[in-house]
Amino acid sequence: MHKSNIVEKIGYGLGDISSSMFWKIFSYYLPFFYSNIFGLRLVDAGILVLITRIWDAVSDPMMGIIADRTHTRWGKYRPYLLWVAPFFSLVGILLFTTPDLHYTGKLVWAYATYLLMMTVYTAINVPYGAMLGVMTADSEEKIIFSSYRMFFAYAGSFIALAAWEPLCRLFQGMNFSLQTDWQLSMVVIAAACLVLFVLCFLLTKERLHTVSTVSVGKDIKALMHNGPWWILIVAALCFNLFCTVRGATVAYYFSDIIGFNQYLRLGEWSVLFYAGLFLGIGEIANMVGVMLTVPIAKHLGKKTTFIAVNMGLVGLSILFFFIPVSPAGFWLMLLLQVLISVLTGIMSPLIWSMYADVSDYAEYKFHTASTGLIFSSSSMAQKFGGAFGGAAVLWLLASCGYIVRTDAQMTAQVAILQTDQAQMCLRALMSFIPAGVALLSIIVCRMYSLTTQKMGAINEELAKKRQIETK
Question: Percent of the chain, pLDDT > 70?
Answer without folding.
Answer: 91
